[in-house]
Amino acid sequence: LDVNFAPYINFKGEAKGVVVVLHDFTEIRRLEKMRSDFVANVSHELRTPITSIKGFTETLLDGAMQDEETCRNFLQIIYDESERLYRMIRDILDLSKIEQKRLTLQLTEVDLQDLMASTVALLQEQAQRKQISIQLPDPHPRVTLTTDKDCLQQIILNLVTNAVVYTPEGGAISLSLRQERGQVQFQVADTGIGIPEADLPRIFERFYRVDRARSRDSGGTGLGLAIVKHLVENLHGHITVQSAEGEGTTFTVTLPLQW
Ligand code: ADP
Fold it and tell me: What is the rounded distance in angstroms from the CA atom of residue 172 to the CA atom of residue 135?
């Protein structure tokens, strides 16, 4: 809190009181802290893949290159880590663009079932490798909404990608939707590992991961859900999650049909 005093003097030059000005800096400080925490987190997250790329490159240069198999293994790790670094930078930039609402929304009429089908098609191969089935909602009756198609596709893509990553072999993912009172509500449900109750309130935070190692192995950046939440809010909607450990997780997105 910042406090300023000034005497209040009337036109005759008599002191009549004091003027007190109070400035509340709590909000500004909070935002500053959030920003510096974010920078600290980003630096830490970026350092991990870079350290590993540096380490493996040094070992190769120090002589490990002589052995072809070691060489191949190390190069694969270096490649994977560079990919992760690339994804992380892409996600960080996306997130800051979305946050600053620099993303200019392009509103068009979007057929939700069509968009779900074309988005799921992008992940079909990855799902098949784990023998995970993906069920799409009934295409009839058609549900259309006026929204930004790219944002909505990114939301569906991130949610279904997570469902594939966090569901063991042979599991099932199901997409469903229902339209009611000027809104559409859609769900992405999986039969995966679930999220412990204690972690649920935090999973939409940037870089928050229930199991750091598992997320890293799957190429995760810890930013997918933060991006989803911001995108949903930019589309004037909201998102909720329900989960039971060992049973599965369901994300529910509610969007206005028109705005
Ligand atoms: P990540 O890149 O780690 O997947 P996200 O922001 O997409 O980052 O998700 C944050 C965390 O939430 C994940 O690390 C994971 O622990 C948990 N999570 C997200 N989706 C699911 C899901 N469908 N099932 C189980 N856990 C999930």
Answer: 8
**214: its two tokens:** 């598992």
H or E stretch at 9: strand 2-9
137/116 Cα distance (integer angstroms): 8
- Asked if residues 152 and 259 have their Cβ atoms less than 8 Å apart, the reply is no
Locate the ligand 1 atom nearest the alpha carbon of residue 214 and give its number.
14
ipTM of the complex, rounded to two decimals: 0.98
| Beta carbons of 115 and 152 less than 8 angstroms apart | yes
* Residues 133, 196: Cα–Cα separation, whole Å: 24
Maximum CA extent, the chain: 95
Q: Which of 161, 165, 209, 242 maximizes ligand 1 atoms within 8 Å of its Cβ, making it the mutation to test the pocket?
A: 209
**For residue 23, what are the β-bridge partners?**
2
The model carries a pTM of 0.83
Distance CA(135)–CA(153), nearest Å, equals 17
Give 192's DSSP letter. Answer: S
227 lines ligand 1 (CB under 6 A): no
pLDDT (tens, 9 = 90+) of the chain, 259 residues, equals: 777 888 888 888 888 888 888 777 787 888 888 778 888 888 888 998 999 999 999 999 998 888 899 999 999 999 999 999 999 999 999 888 888 776 689 999 999 999 999 999 999 999 999 999 999 999 999 999 999 999 999 999 999 999 999 999 999 999 999 999 999 999 999 999 999 999 999 999 999 999 877 777 777 889 999 999 999 999 999 999 999 999 999 999 999 999 8
